[in-house]
Amino acid sequence: MDPVGVAAAPDAGPGPAWQSKCPWGAPNTTSISCSLADVMSEQLAKELQLEEENAAFPEVVAVAEGPFISGENIDTSSDLMLAQMLQMEFDREYDAQLRREEKKINGDSKVSISFENYRKVHPYDSDSSEDGVDWQDTRHDPYRADKPTTTPRKGFIGKGKDITTKHDEVVCGRKNTARMENFAPEFQVGDGIGMDLKLSNQVFNALKQHAYSEERRSARLHEKKEHSTAEKAVDPKTRLLLYKMVNAGMLETITGCISTGKESVVFHAYGGNATEDKVIPPECAIKVFKTTLNEFKNRDKYIKDDYRFKDRFSKLNPRKIIRMWAEKEMHNLTRMHNAGIPCPQVVMLKKHVLVMSFIGQDQVPAPKLKDVTLSSEDMKKAYYQILNMMQQLYKECNLVHADLSEYNMLWHDGKVWLIDVSQSVEPTHPHGLEFLFRDCRNVSQFFQKGGVAEALNERELFNAVSGLNITADNEVDFQAEIEALEKMNEDHVQNHGKKLSMFSSDGDPPIYDE
Length: 514
Fold this sequence. Notes:
Elements: H1 3-7, H2 17-20, H3 36-39, H4 42-56, H5 79-106, H6 135-138, E1 156-157, E2 164-165, H7 169-179, H8 201-227, H9 236-247, E3 251-260, E4 264-271, E5 283-289, H10 318-338, E6 346-350, E7 353-357, E8 360-361, E9 364-365, H11 376-395, E10 409-412, E11 415-418, H12 432-449, H13 458-466, H14 475-496
Antiparallel strand pairs: 1-2, 3-4, 4-5, 5-7, 6-7, 8-9, 10-11
Protein name: Serine/threonine-protein kinase RIO3
Subcellular location: Cytoplasm
Region (Disordered): 125-160
């Protein structure tokens, strides 16, 4: 039979109903011609397959299992859904990489590490058989018994050779190891999971005591940072004082730190607007006395016997000593400035913050005498100037520097300036002459090393400054006579209740000039 003729038979007229469904009959719809590329397309094949499945099973909705799903699925029409599925796939790959790293690092070691905290997908969300249960529930903890055991009242368990008391070394060791979990979180005790550790009572007690000490030390450090000045820094209370000075117009701006020491920190600042009763220099030096009490524990000898502060001195309140220390330097600088001795001029004092005139120019402080290189003429000039200043300080200001050296003398504008006089005392102080002799030794040694031939030795310089005629051949006898004079003055104070105005001398000290 010719197939062309069969294809043309539908116009033969009406027939029985079974003839319309005959497989050999021609389809009612006309065929749509398509190209070879459309026939070979995978997308077209998938669409045709979906159409056949929908026609055969119209009530079943196809659900895709992978991230690559056709756009006809209503479940993936949302970009948020696609992003979550992609993120979940990425998290699973990331967790698989972490598990490989764990196996590589741990190996056969008894001490193992875990990246559980870094996993993206929790074990109960993962399809892996390894993560089917939480590892923390199945991991063996050597510090805890598998079943809770109770210690009987009699204090031991077992019989005969197998008896075990509560003082057993192994039992106590494991209990001590478990107790380490009660230490403070800041105290690192290590990770002992997987190891059967046994700590003796001696080791545990030592660790416990150390943990308590560290906890107290941490609290002290925190309090110290909150309530005290530190290196090149100030505490909140000091910062508030400086802010008030700037806001009040006393200071224009504070530029930064220029010097640090054991007892204080010095800042540079530009002066503000002058008032009617106070002249503020263009550049100021702010000396902030450190409120850390460690540096002032051994400094009470400079202040407790000073009659100006003796009644106010309290060894039980060291914070007051710090304020008194700043006040003492203010009074000493005022005396020196009134006597015409080159020194910083006091501007104001607020608690432990002292504002003075700045010795230097354009934020550059004047160099210390130990750091500057002087010619022989300038060195000789500086020596005679210091000698006259020591005599003025002793006679006119009634003071002894008590820490005079090349570290506390500045060279500025061709002359020497004295600084750091917070520890200065009066000659009638129980140790005033000892301090003066120490200053004379420092000055003599510095200028003798500097090549000044006219420099006196410490004993001659002491007699020249104080006006006392102590004729001792050696230093030991010289210091013995100084101590005898101090003892005589102290006895006089105890008997008469007042200080001697001045030590007895044969006349005014000679004034040395160049």
